TrEMBL record:
Pfam families: VWA (PF00092), VWA_2 (PF13519). This is von Willebrand factor type A domain-containing protein. InterPro entries: CLCR, VWF_A, vWFA_dom_sf. It comes from the Bacteria.
């Protein structure tokens, strides 16, 4: 057996360990660089509002973060190929606004491009020109076309010698241009391609393409793109007018050599048949070849005649970047920008802005450099250029901005935030990094309904004392809506259902309910005056219901017939019983005809229902057919006030069934149930409103004015073009702030927003809403209220929306100061305002007798809020102290001049809890909340010490609002016994 030398074994093991540690270190370093470079993404608006088919723009700001110098590998060699269009059209002027010859402007721009690399060592440049066919431009220093960028004179000589002529074989230019690059994988390769038009020629091989001259002397070529030689395919793919040849042919792909039978096909004269797209297809084939070779490429469309769409198609096939230039300055600037990208010390490559559009959102921006895959879009943007900062030892890049223009085809709320919204790019480890964009909320409305939303703390500078109640006020002001073609003013139909039972003769704030009802109903009709699209029906009910016939079986008539309607209201007939169910049944019959109208049923009564309608001679079979049947061959009315054998009161059950029919129609009906009176505890109307998803308003214990205002509000809802029903204010408070009742989350149902057409301003307007919440702070701190408060509502397009209030900062503070000492009515020279009325440098009181008197002062500083101060004398209940007697309690306000103003009228309590224990409570009045307020409470008392050393009295003051306390110890020092 062969033995291994010990040294060799140890050395081998050492190498293994070193190699393993190196791999671990490399792996850790590579892992730590996985997200380098980082890019900070900022969106200018997190919320955008727009109308349907209205374009809007999302603006993103990108801040590339610095890269440590040690993470970047040294610069590699670079190869650049300029592919330049020398077709005949390059002899023409650039365009209408620039008479410069295209070739002259191009030569100037190309020369400036060459100058940018003339001092760089590791760059090679080649030039390819193309017209009908392409050509590698060579110099005596390089037969293969690639020379050092420092050879700028030779390169410029090539540029100077270019002359325009022939067609535009873009595909061949790309084919030959891509052939110049080396096969070295570590070399960076860049192809800069320029064209002033569109592809009109192609390169092919095979037997097709024989030329001939037509009668007009124009040169023609025929190409048959098919492996099927059937004659019927020939004319479809023919360039010339006649079927002169019918042979197979192929696009020529080979980039490294030219076959002996290579041909160049060019379109002929003005009578040429329609372009079949062969030249464009060939160009895209060769563009994809550039992409497959991994060549970074730039395509420049030059002049006003350039076919931007076709050139962008070619750019997309090459996965390149497209630039447009329509004048001499622009072509120079484009070449300069591309040169700067290539020259960068380091560049983040393959940068794309990715976004995925939901249904209803469309892309409305430029399609330049955009790849589309269904609803997913990727915008290719230039590499991010980094410059080496040698002092900081890092690579730095300038920030940049990108905008995405979209539009919505339908209303809705769209959240544009997910992994499909990101910027992707190649990291320093060649891995692809995806940086997700911040969320953007898009609110689209056909009617452009917007609001001004404000909130503030009432009568406060946003500094609130701890435990002090304060009010937050919320204001929602709807902006006017201007009419547009998208507005469709629907007809309105409203049935007023009025209680005509004898109970309506009862009193309501000194008037008969019937009188109040009639007056208010007529005011509602007046409110409708001028609204030509509103029709009104009138149903009155007692034991049964009657639909008012306004003549010739007209039950719904225009509200402009106000006198006729008001006269019918005035002549209501009072009768026995109350059949609410029959009133609803006949109201539904009235509304059953026009399904395109906005429909409303408004029921007003005293909530007493004691009659129902049944089939004739069948009292247990409720009559529910929607017709105008009254007492007759089909229906009868009957009283019902006690439960039957099924424990149901039929009159109430009948009302419930007919109310249920409101929501079972194939059209929507808005319902309102309003009770009127001074007494009664029935809840049937409330139940009916809930059953119909309607509104219930209780006016049994209110007043006439409140009732009339409620009815006029309903009238406004009926006649309105737009109504946002009962939006909700949602407030979610952070920890440390609660409602006055201690809740952190509150929900308030707000009045409806009703938009009425204003004839003067020619727009729809709605009154604003103001709501307040009573809050208090329970914890000291500064609170930034952001997205804590919102209005939730369903808009007129039945879309659920939520709008947040602007951020608000408030501080919960404890600005009280509480101090005690012996009181003097003459300020000392030390201490601050108010405090210098206290002698608190010594708390010893010496008396030669057992009895002594103390004059104590309590200084309190407030922020103007009402404050209660409790003072406890002998808090520790020292038993050596006996018989505390109060001499006086006085309250002073300290002025800004440090003078005492006695407050004669103030609230206080003086409780003798025990002989040696007193409690005083003083209420400090409110003051100016914009500044501090200073008070002195002076309390004077006498007491008896048993004569024992250490007869201390603890005078404790407490501010009850914040539970802040201060103890002041009075110490009685006994004189020594000298007898």
């Amino acid at each position: 057996m062969k033995k291994h030398h010990p040294f060799k074994v140890k050395f081998t093991l050492m190498l293994v360990v070193i190699f393993t540690l190196s791999l671990i270190a490399f792996s850790q370093r590579a892992s730590s660089n996985i997200n380098v470079p980082d890019i900070k993404v900022i969106v200018s608006q997190n919320s955008i509002k727009a109308g349907v088919n209205e374009e809007f723009t999302i603006n993103y700001h990108f801040e590339p973060q610095p890269i440590p110098m040690e993470l970047i590998s040294p610069q590699t060699d670079k190869e650049i190929v300029l592919v330049i269009d020398t077709s005949g059209s390059m002899k023409d002027p650039i365009g209408k606004n620039d008479s410069t010859i295209r070739m002259n402007a191009l030569k100037s721009a190309a020369n400036n491009f060459i100058d940018k690399f003339s001092e760089i060592d590791n760059v090679k440049v080649g030039i390819v020109t193309y017209s009908t066919q392409s050509k590698i431009e060579t110099t005596k220093y390089s037969k293969n076309g690639m020379v050092s960028s420092k050879e700028k004179n030779n390169l410029k000589a090539i540029i100077k010698g270019m002359t325009p002529d022939g067609g535009t074989n873009i595909g061949d230019g790309l084919r030959t241009g891509s052939s110049l690059f080396s096969t070295n994988p570590s070399t960076k390769k860049y192809l800069v391609f320029m064209s002033d038009g569109e592809p009109t020629a192609l390169t092919y091989t095979g037997d097709g393409g024989y030329y001939y001259y037509d009668w007009w002397g124009d040169l023609r070529y025929q190409v048959v793109e098919s492996t099927n030689f059937a004659g019927r395919r020939t004319k479809e793919y023919m360039w010339g007018k006649d079927n002169t040849e019918n042979k197979r042919w192929n696009y020529y792909y080979n980039i490294y050599e030219n076959d002996y039978d290579i041909k160049y096909g060019v379109y002929g004269g003005t009578s040429e048949p329609a372009d079949k797209g062969f030249a464009l297809k060939y160009a895209k084939i060769m563009a994809r070849n550039v992409k497959d070779m991994g060549i970074k490429n730039f395509v420049i469309g030059f002049s006003e005649g350039a076919s931007e769409k076709k050139l962008m198609d070619i750019t997309n096939a090459a996965n390149g970047l497209y630039y447009g230039a329509t004048d001499a300055n622009a072509i120079n600037e484009v070449y300069s920008q591309i040169a700067d990208q290539i020259k960068a010390d380091f560049a983040t490559e393959d940068v794309k802005i990715n976004f995925n559009l939901p249904e209803g959102i469309e892309y409305a921006g430029s399609m330049k450099n955009i790849d589309v895959n269904g609803t997913s879009f990727a915008q290719r943007i230039p590499d991010i250029k980094y410059k080496l900062n040698k002092e900081a030892k890092r690579y730095e890049a300038d920030p940049f901005d990108i905008s995405i223009t979209l539009k919505a085809t339908k209303s809705g709320v769209y959240d544009l935030s997910n992994e499909g919204w990101n910027i992707s790019y190649k990291g320093v480890n060649s891995n692809i990094i995806n940086k997700i964009f911040p969320s953007v909320n898009i609110d689209i409305s056909k009617y452009n309904m917007t609001f001004i939303m404000n909130r503030n703390i009432v009568e406060n500078n946003n500094k609130i004392n701890l435990y002090k109640d304060f009010q937050m006020e919320y204001k929602i002001t709807p902006n006017p809506i201007k009419p547009s073609d998208s507005f469709v003013s629907k007809p309105k139909e409203v049935v007023l259902v009025l209680d005509a039972s004898k109970s309506m003769l009862e009193g309501f704030n000194g008037e008969e309910k019937t009188s109040v009802l009639k007056e208010t109903a007529k005011a509602v009709i007046d409110r409708f005056n001028g609204n030509t699209n509103v029709k009104v029906a009138l149903v009155s009910y007692n034991s049964g219901a009657i639909v008012k016939d306004f003549g010739k079986s007209q039950y719904l008539i225009s509200s402009n017939n106000k006198d006729q309607i008001k006269n019918a209201i005035e002549n209501l007939t009072i009768g026995e019983g109350s059949n609410t169910g029959d009133a609803i049944r006949k109201a539904l019959w009235v509304l059953a005809n026009n399904n395109d109208a906005d429909k409303h049923i408004v029921v007003i009564g005293d909530d007493k229902t004691d009659y129902y309608t049944h089939e004739k001679d069948q009292p247990n079979n409720l009559y529910t057919e929607l017709n105008n049947e009254a007492l007759g061959t089909k229906a009868q009315y009957a009283p019902s006030t006690v439960p039957n054998e099924d424990n149901k009161i039929l009159s109430e059950e009948y009302a419930r069934i007919m109310a249920g029919a409101i929501v079972n129609q194939n059209y929507r009906i808005s319902s309102y149930f309003i009770t009127l009176g001074e007494k009664g505890d029935n809840n049937l109307f409330s139940e009916l409103a809930s059953k119909t998803n309607g509104m219930y308003i209780d006016h049994r214990r209110t007043n006439k004015l409140d009732f009339q205002n409620s009815m006029l509000d309903i009238a406004d809802e009926v006649r309105a073009q737009f109504v946002i029903k009962n939006p909700k204010l949602i407030e979610t408070l952070p920890e440390g702030i609660t409602s006055s009742q201690g809740a952190n989350k509150m929900e308030i149902v707000l009045p409806s927003l009703v938009y009425i057409y204003n004839n003067a301003t020619k727009q729809y307007e709605s009154k604003g809403i103001t709501a307040t919440l009573d809050l208090k702070g329970n914890k000291i701190g500064t609170y930034n209220l952001v997205e804590d408060a919102a209005i939730n509502y369903t808009d007129i397009e039945k879309i659920n929306r939520s709008l947040t209030f602007h951020p608000l900062q408030l501080s919960i503070v404890d600005e009280y100061i509480l101090k005690q000492g012996l009181f003097t009515n003459k300020a000392t020279s030390f201490g601050t305002l108010g405090e210098n009325y206290l002698l608190n440098d010594s708390n010893e009181v010496s008396e030669i007798a057992e009895d002594f008197t103390a004059k104590v002062g309590t200084y309190v500083r407030t922020s103007g809020q009402p404050t209660r101060v409790k003072i406890i004398i002998n808090k520790d209940q020292n038993s050596n102290i006996q018989n505390i007697n109060m001499d006086s309690i006085r309250l002073f306000k300290v002025t800004e001049k440090n003078e005492l103003e006695e407050i004669k009228d103030f609230n206080f309590t003086n409780d003798k809890v025990l002989d040696n224990y007193r409690e005083i409570t003083v209420s400090l009045p409110p003051g100016d909340t914009s500044k501090y307020n200073h008070f002195i409470i002076n309390y004077n008392f006498s007491t008896t010490n048993k004569g024992v050393e250490g007869g201390n009295i603890n005078c404790s003051a407490v501010i009850e609002e914040v539970n802040r306390s201060n103890d002041f110890i009075l110490k009685s020092v006994m004189l020594p016994d000298v007898f």
